[in-house]
Every structure is written in structure tokens, then in C-alpha cells.
Inverse folding.
């Protein structure tokens, strides 16, 4: 069942989401060749705790870290560790926080130094696709209007949207109904209503959309080992239209 949120609940979710936004802003300053994903993870855990929140991913279904750090062909759920970033890498960083009983969730993909033209275009298209989807989040639309907007933008650029992972509702639980695929038929799916809060998150491969899970049981990679990018925002539908809770204005 889709759980609609009150204005007060949405403000609580904004507080959690802005902690995540601040973490991702600070991580952007740290990303450079030579830093390890473990260092990024420790920094993020400390910052979340200092803000009075709890890392949402740490211990979730047994996940061992605060961040998901996914490099190059890694799609999502890469586990931080001793891996050092290299010039030309791209790294997707997914972060969540729990504050006063409510979750916030956001992700960005960053360049490490100078990256290839293809990688740069992939990041640009994926971020654009997220905002194309967000703009479809309005009363009277249906859920798959969001999905179709994302898919159309990605595929028109020659890339592919991952099918096996999707966006989701969010609130007192990190994953709530509905699931929000990044592909679909417009004018289908549940009607969008005021109070809906979604974590919208296109995951886009430069090649084929198929993925596989590595032996660690978490890390998803593109099956053809093409580059992959991931952007995510927590977004509420209010009287004023869509409201990006994980974006500090």
C-alpha cells in the first residue's frame, strides 16, 4: 500500500535528506586520484553521526558499510574498501540517512579527474534523465509517466536503463511501495497524489542494460562491463508540485 505523507512528515524527511545532500557535497571535494572508497565511507559515517542521524545503509539487510561506492562498470551497491580511485574513473556514491524516524536517500556519480567524452556524456544524460522524471511528478499524472520520461531520454542518447533495480517509495522505511521502474508505458500505473514521496534513481549503462552480481553478493556490474552511472533524489509531491527534498537550495 502506498503511504502518503503529511506536510510535517515531509519536512522531517527533508531534514534527513539534506544531511545526505551535505554528505554528497563534501564527498565531491574529497574525490581525487589516490583516495580509497573506505576513506570516503569513514568520512561519511562520521559526518552523518555528527549531525545526529544514523547511516541508513549500515546493517540494512546485512550491508556492511555507510555508502555504496560503484566504480566504472559497477552499477550499484559497490562495497567501500581499499580500492584507490584512478584518474579517468567515474564513481557512483549512494547515501542514506535516518533522522527522527524518517529516511532520506540520494546518489550522484562523480568524475575522478579528467574523464572520457563518453563517460562525461553518460553522467550528463543520466542526471538529465532524473530531472526529466522529476518533472513528471505532478498530480493527475501516473507513475509510469515518470518511468517513460526517464527511459525516453536515456534511450534517445543511445544508452540503456537498468531493469533489475528501480526507484521506490520512502518514508519511515527506506523502501516502501511503489516500485518506480526507469522504463515503462506512459499514462499507466498508480495515479500520483499529493503526499507521495519517491526516491527516483535512474541507473544507466553505456552499453546493454543487463547486469550481474559479483561474488560479494552485493556489487552489481554491467554484464558487458560498459560504464554505468546513477543519480537519485528524494522527491515529494505537494500543493506546489514536486519538491526535491535532497537538494539544498
Amino acid at each position: 500500500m502506498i503511504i502518503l505523507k503529511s506536510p510535517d512528515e515531509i519536512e522531517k524527511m527533508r531534514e534527513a535528506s539534506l544531511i545526505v545532500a551535505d554528505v554528497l557535497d563534501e564527498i565531491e571535494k574529497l574525490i581525487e586520484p589516490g583516495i580509497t572508497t573506505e576513506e570516503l565511507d569513514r568520512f561519511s559515517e562520521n559526518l552523518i553521526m555528527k549531525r545526529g542521524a544514523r547511516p541508513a545503509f549500515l546493517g540494512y539487510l546485512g550491508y556492511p558499510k555507510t555508502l555504496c561506492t560503484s566504480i566504472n562498470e559497477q552499477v550499484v551497491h559497490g562495497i567501500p574498501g581499499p580500492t584507490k580511485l584512478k584518474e579517468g574513473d567515474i564513481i557512483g556514491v549512494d547515501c542514506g540517512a535516518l533522522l527522527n524516524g524518517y529516511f532520506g536517500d540520494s546518489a550522484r556519480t562523480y568524475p575522478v579527474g579528467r574523464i572520457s567524452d563518453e563517460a562525461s556524456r553518460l553522467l550528463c544524460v543520466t542526471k538529465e534523465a532524473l530531472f526529466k522524471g522529476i518533472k513528471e511528478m505532478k498530480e493527475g499524472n501516473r507513475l509510469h509517466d515518470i518511468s517513460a520520461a526517464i527511459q525516453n531520454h536515456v534511450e534517445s542518447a543511445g544508452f540503456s536503463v537498468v531493469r533489475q533495480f528501480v526507484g521506490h517509495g520512502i518514508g519511515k522505511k527506506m523502501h516502501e511501495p511503489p516500485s518506480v521502474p526507469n522504463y515503462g508505458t506512459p499514462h499507466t500505473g498508480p495515479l500520483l497524489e499529493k503526499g507521495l514521496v519517491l526516491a527516483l534513481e535512474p541507473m544507466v549503462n553505456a552499453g546493454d542494460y543487463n547486469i550481474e552480481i559479483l561474488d560479494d553478493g552485493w556489487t552489481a556490474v554491467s554484464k558487458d562491463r560498459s560504464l554505468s552511472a546513477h543519480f537519485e533524489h528524494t522527491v515529494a509531491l505537494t500543493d506546489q508540485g514536486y519538491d526535491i527534498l535532497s537538494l539544498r537550495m
In short: The chain has a mean pLDDT of 98. The chain is about 30% helix and 25% strand.
